[in-house]
Design goal:
The protein contains nine helices and six strands. It has 463 residues and is α+β, with helices and mostly antiparallel strands. The strands form two sheets. It has a four-stranded antiparallel beta sheet with strand order 2-3-5-6, with no helix packed on it. It is elongated, with a radius of gyration of 43 Å.
Length: 463
């Protein structure tokens, strides 16, 4: 989470402009709403749910599989199977015992051959259970892959939240800057109006010429133009922030809060050690898990060189009849088939498909490793760049703060000199404009420092 604290901004007044707006949001409100409504976060959450379900499904491969099957069929184009049409019924009274024994045997054979031709109606009901005893490690590897996939989804969700927080915070800082810029412009405009009123009185009294009056009026026009532009930028910035929050644009909305001030903070510098950064960055953690998944996939593909062993069993009832409503009740010894089996399968040749799948899996692993190496170099460069930007922002704050102090002193001296007629009004107007610009530059440097610090936290994985 980002480290935030509030500071008093006595140098330029309040940081945010409070109003009677219908809605007012703090920094915490902005981040919370943005996380709740972000489509990227919601998509990542659904991806994590899918990944978690995949893990549960992978565990299912380690348990027995039990299947129930039932079939009731009508076969066309066959004659009735009738045991009454027996050879023994053709014997007369002169047949001896041997003839009758032979006829009985032929009766059974004839009935069997007739049944092989098929009954018109057939019923089959069966229950089958199979348990994988050995599958070249595919089951355990599949579970590990599913776990890695879940961790990838988890890191993706965390990274999505980091990006949303960072985007919301930088947009919030921009709004604070523009709110303060509006206040600075309004204060400068108020001061310029006082100068104009004084110049007008002096002109009417003949103490100054028309040029001084025109210069004072021109400064008011310039400040009004700048104020109008800043207010338009303020509206756009607020709408952009509302869009980041997933909210519709609103006219009456205010954002209240403060910026972090490096001069009064006890903030520790982010840890920029590359080893620690890589251990925290979600992108590297994702690639580590992807690399693990690719390694496991190679193991799965190589498993096709090995045999599979499956234990199975089934129990089935079968009945054939000439009529649809002719049934034989299930009999354990007569029409119920029962078996237990142990099946061993092993591919001997499949057109080199297994070999090529292993090659492809190894190639995918290498591509992931290349991505990881590239990402590590990119992160190192990102951290160095963010450190330089942050350090430059710190130096700029000191410079801009000193400029504000000098501009304030310059204005005080200019006002005193102008009041006794030692300097022309143009110098006074220039001093007023210099102070306004110095305050705006200072505010801009504060925003730059805050954004640079947030960017450094994000780059080091501490955000």
């Amino acid at each position: 989470m980002p480290r935030c604290f509030t500071i008093p901004m006595t140098l330029i007044g309040v940081m945010a402009i409070l109003s009677s707006a219908a809605e007012s949001y703090t920094r915490e409100d902005v981040i919370r709403i943005a996380l709740e409504k972000s489509s990227d976060v919601q998509t990542a959450e659904q991806e994590y749910i899918t990944a978690n379900s995949t893990v549960n499904g992978a565990y299912g491969n380690a348990f027995p599989s039990i299947d129930l099957s039932a079939q009731y069929a009508r076969t066309f184009g066959v004659s009735d199977v009738n045991q009454s049409d027996a050879i023994s019924s053709m014997l007369d009274n002169t047949a001896d015992m041997n003839d009758r024994m032979l006829a009985g045997t032929l009766d059974k054979m004839a009935y069997g051959l007739s049944a092989l031709n098929g009954f018109r109606w057939g019923t089959q009901v069966g229950l089958t259970a199979t348990q994988i005893l050995y599958a070249q490690g595919k089951v355990s590897s599949g579970v590990q892959i599913a776990r890695s996939y879940r961790r990838v989804a988890e890191y993706s969700l965390e990274n999505a939240k980091v990006l949303v927080r960072y985007t919301a915070e930088t947009a919030f800082n921009s709004v604070l800057y523009l709110d303060s810029a509006v206040a600075i412009y309004e204060a400068s405009l108020n001061q310029a109006q006082k100068h104009f009123d004084y110049a007008k009185q002096a002109y009417e009294s003949g103490l100054v010429g028309e040029l001084d009056l025109i210069r004072a009026e021109l400064q008011i026009d310039e400040l009004q133009s700048g104020l109008e532009k800043t207010k338009k930028d303020q509206i756009l910035a607020r709408n952009a922030l509302l869009n980041t929050m997933g909210l519709p644009w609103q006219e009456d909305v205010a954002f209240t809060g403060d910026l972090r001030d490096p001069a009064s903070s006890t903030l520790a510098e982010p840890d920029t050690a590359l080893k620690n950064v890589l251990a925290r960055r979600k992108e590297i953690l994702q690639l580590n898990e992807s690399e693990n998944m690719q390694n496991l996939n190679i193991h799965i593909e190589q498993g096709d060189y090995k045999p599979s062993l499956i234990l199975g069993g089934s129990i089935a009832y079968a009945n054939g009849a000439n009529r649809w409503n002719s049934w034989e009740k299930p009999d354990w010894d007569k029409n119920i088939d029962k078996k237990v089996y142990l099946a061993l399968t092993m591919n001997l040749f499949n057109g080199m498909q297994t070999k090529e799948k292993v090659v492809q899996a190894k190639s995918s692993l290498r591509k992931t490793q290349i991505q990881k190496e590239t990402a590590e170099r990119g992160i190192q460069l990102e951290v160095e760049s963010c450190v330089n930007t942050w350090e430059n922002a710190k130096r700029q704050i000191e410079i801009r703060k000193r400029q504000v102090s000098l501009a304030e002193r310059n204005l005080e001296l200019s006002e005193a000199a102008y009041s006794v007629g030692k300097i022309p009004q143009l110098d006074l107007l220039d001093a007023n404009m210099s102070l306004r610009n110095a305050k705006l530059d200072y505010m801009s440097s504060m925003v730059d420092w805050n954004n640079a610090y947030s960017a450094l936290l994000k780059a080091t994985g501490e955000y």
